[in-house]
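Batch manifest, entry 17 of 40.
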Amino acid sequence: MGGFMYTVAVLLVVLGVLIFVHELGHYWAAKAFGVWVHRFAIGIGSPVKRLSFQRGETEWAIAWLPLGGYVKMASREEDPSTGVLEGGAENAQVPPDRVFEAKPVWQRMVIILAGVTLNIVFAWLIYVGLAFKNGHQYDPTVIIGAVRAAELPAEAAALATVEPGTTVLTLDGEPVRTWDDITSRLTHSAGDEAAFTFDSHPPVTVQLHRDQLVERSQLAIALRPLHPAVLSVVAPDTPAEAAGLAVGDSLVAIEGTPIGQWNDAVTIIESAAGRELTVTVARGGEQLDLVVTPAEERRVAGDTTSALVGRIGVAQRVPYRSERYSAGEAIIAGTTATWTAAGTIVRTFRGLFTGRVSTREVGGPILIGQLAAQSARAGVDVLLAFMALISVNLAVVNLLPIPVLDGGAFLLLLVEGVTRRPIPVKLREAVQVVGLILIVLLMVMAFGNDIGRLLGR
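Output type: structure tokens
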């Protein structure tokens, strides 16, 4: 129960902040152009009276249904779909020149796009701030420590023959200088193949469309770098702590089998859930034999569809290197990170439409909550980076040309600007209802996938 409540609390904080940022963009733009704002709400539907207060003409509120938020602006007509979502009609007497429809089309376009714009700016500020604070941290390893054949996508089966100790020379025709070069090019490449060259193995070219994001991620995960088997973390209340393992220990052998690198230890431990293992470690110039029993856990925490493996609660020491960024370099790095995040989300939607990404990969609030909780446990920087990613996600999703979303509203205004006449009320209402139905169907699919993951489907 404690873990569930923690996940819910982190989810509410993350979504609450991002929704507030989004709606604040609409609010600021509306006020700047003189539009009367009845209500600023986090959540949808009618406000909770005890969690609401009035400031001037605007009511600031928490609404009953904690999904999304809204800025209710004065309007000549009340759309049936948005009327329900925004708590019904208002009784305030509004000057005719302060209703939304009284403003020029270009001002209404700015108001509609202000929410996604502030989400992008919010994410960009986080990415720039993290880049300036932490600099560029990278893994200088370019030597393959293991290729997990079972995790390779079918298109990359030829890589299973690459032996540990092989150095990656180039990927997609460009020299490889760090392990980050490998992972970033595999996951973000604009090409439709991944061409490897090695120092001691024939070249391998993997045919993967740029929108096959799941398969590209699987490939990046299946390739493991060569790292020494040194512990950087021993988590509390885990088999490793109970056995007496300590930060800084070097794993020398497990059950008498020599450990030459981190992946050797992972392979043995993952296959020994519930079975006692004698682990030989080097500590302070001497060797110790410790007995540890790996616990059975899911390979991906919270995903009941992933394989059960042995875990002892330790993490490896990765020989990261860091380079400080100047202010200008941090701005460039933050801009690149924001652009990359947006591009990945666009490719995901494109893949969904073309069938290269399964609809089962779509996640809803439950998945976001699980990932947010994992990020929070990993530290403030990881949580902030996760919030930036979700903020970009929120912006891109809202730009979809679906009525009810900002992209659909913008499209209607564009039609009005081109034809120089308002879209008929009946037509707009019908389009809004269709848009609402599409959003409900999308939410049902996302919740269904989340529940399916929890139930192990």
